[in-house]
Specification:
alpha/beta; 12 helices; binds alpha-D-ribofuranose; binds calcium ion
């Protein structure tokens, strides 16, 4: 089976780095480009971290383009742009002493890179969204004619049953830029909502961490450092793979249990701004009819299968 053409949008923090390593070493994916957006940390550090991770993965040929450094309505809707450096460390990788790449990013803006890649792609491309959706919203608004070139957006963001992690209601990637998420969810592009309901399920065993760290691959030292940071920072003997689960589910979609639902983004509520409102009512002759679905919502994941894919790919 030929590799799946993908673009990855990220805010390289620790779990984005794990996701990029999996994607970069997977024979099942053809990464056409990577775009960066402010989220876990500021845009400059996101770009630097992304280049560093791809260098370690021996994939320096993949173009990395910077996008937005703030949410769509920064200064209006968001009084203060939150970042997650308290989670990912001030450097974003939990590895402040790790030497960063000296490679320059692609000179194009993220939106232009996406447009140029999609315009010439021989088949529709899957977008793996691991960050606030600011870049993707900007692309949707600027290039509506190219939307048919997107096969699907697999979006790590929101939740159906698990509430939020940025606030009680908002998951971080949606909560950072709810307006952007609303643009994407109203774009008509097929979406898989890979939310906190499954995001937290994919973990490694301590033995798998030891195996990956000691695999002797060029990326093994960085990978080991990232996994040890997660174990320390969260006190998790079994580190969560976070965004990497999104990539695993893109490679193996059969690992997900999904249901089509209408998903709307709350923009106004004092306590609910940034919430993914998943309409799980089932249209029937008696009940109110739910709005037509605009997303496939992940209810469950075969977490062990996803974790094994990560290990098998990166032990190589
Ligand atoms: O809520 C988790 C998501 O927000 C992950 O993508 C993490 O990297 C942060 O971007
Ligand atoms: Ca992320």
């Amino acid at each position: 089976m030929p590799p799946l053409p993908v673009l990855i949008d990220c805010d390289t923090g620790v779990d984005d780095a794990l996701a990029l390593l999996l994607a970069a070493r997977s024979p099942s994916l053809d990464i056409l480009g990577v775009t960066c957006v402010a989220g876990n940390i500021g845009l400059v550090a996101v770009v630097s971290n992304t280049l560093t991770v791809l260098d370690a993965a021996q994939r320096p040929e993949i173009p990395v383009a910077p996008g937005y450094d703030r949410p769509l309505l920064a200064g209006f809707a968001n009084s203060e742009f939150e970042n997650a450096s308290h989670v990912h460390g001030e450097d974003g990788l939990g590895l402040p002493d790790w030497p960063r790449s000296s490679r320059p990013p692609d000179p194009r803006h993220a939106i232009d890179l996406i447009a140029e890649i999609l315009a010439v792609a021989p088949e529709p491309v899957t977008l793996i969204a691991l960050a606030p959706l600011t870049n993707l919203a900007g692309f949707v608004q600027r290039h509506p004619a190219l939307l048919p070139c997107i096969a699907r957006i697999v979006s790590m963001g929101g939740s159906a049953f698990s509430g939020g992690n940025m606030t009680a209601a908002a998951e971080f990637n949606i909560g950072c830029d709810p307006e952007a998420a609303a643009v994407v969810y109203n774009s008509g592009v097929p979406i898989t909502l890979y939310g906190l309901d499954v995001f937290r399920q994919v973990t490694l065993t301590p033995a798998e961490v030891d195996l990956l760290e000691g695999a002797g691959q060029p990326w093994s030292p960085l990978l080991g450092g990232l996994l040890r940071y997660v174990q320390r920072r969260f006190g998790q003997a079994k580190p969560g793979l976070g965004d990497a689960g999104t990539v695993a589910a893109t490679i193996l979609p059969e690992t997900l249990t999904i249901h089509p639902h209408r998903v709307d983004i709350e923009l106004a509520g004092t306590h609910t701004r940034g919430m993914t409102v998943v309409d799980r009512r089932v249209a029937s002759k008696d009940a109110h009819h739910a709005a037509p679905p605009n997303a496939d919502v992940a209810y469950a994941i075969d977490a062990r299968r996803a974790a094994r894919l990560f290990v098998e790919t990166l032990v190589e």
